[in-house]
Write a structure and sequence with these properties.
Blueprint (H helix, E strand, L loop, with lengths): L1 H10 L2 H27 L5 H28 L12 H35 L4 H27 L7
Length: 158
């Protein structure tokens, strides 16, 4: 089992680790806000609580992720002349959007259904949000990392 884990880690390069770090930081903020929103909306119907919580989480996640991604990767797209390498930027943004898009479909499906399910089981709203977020994050990171490998994201790392 340890050998399999080491093989998987060996497949990842530092760019993927930075990407996953940015995703995790975004999720930390998103999870916190989602739990607060879920608890504030505790008196709403389960489907409304779930929907508003997921929307709030998306807004926070993407705001934080975009900022962190820019900070970590802005040097990657600079040429020695100081100009931006728009060809590489465009190529990798398309690949990133493809990878994140696949992950988002999985994330949304898992997040919404598990949050709603936990509310139906009478979990406290914040606990339902935290539990569904944890399950969704694991699924999301797995899908994004491996779909990124499939589409060749960061293939031409410098």
């Amino acid at each position: 089992m340890q050998e399999n884990f080491l093989k998987i880690v060996g497949l990842l390069n530092k760019e993927y680790l930075k990407l996953n770090k940015n995703l995790l930081i975004g999720f930390v903020f998103s999870t916190t806000v989602s739990a607060l929103v879920a608890q504030i909306l505790a008196d709403q119907e389960n489907y409304l609580n779930t929907t508003y919580t997921v929307i709030a989480g998306y807004i926070v996640f993407f705001s934080v992720f975009i900022i962190m991604f820019y900070i970590d990767f802005k040097h990657r797209y600079k040429l020695s002349s100081g100009q931006t390498n728009y060809g590489l930027l465009k190529k990798e943004l398309i690949q990133l959007i493809s990878s994140l898009g696949i992950g988002e479909i999985v994330y949304f499906a898992v997040r919404w259904t598990t949050h709603y399910y936990f509310l139906d089981l009478n979990f406290e709203p914040y606990a339902a949000s935290l539990s569904s977020e944890a399950i969704s994050i694991v699924c999301y990171l797995f899908v994004v990392t491996f779909s990124g490998k499939i589409v060749g994201l960061f293939k031409d790392s410098n």
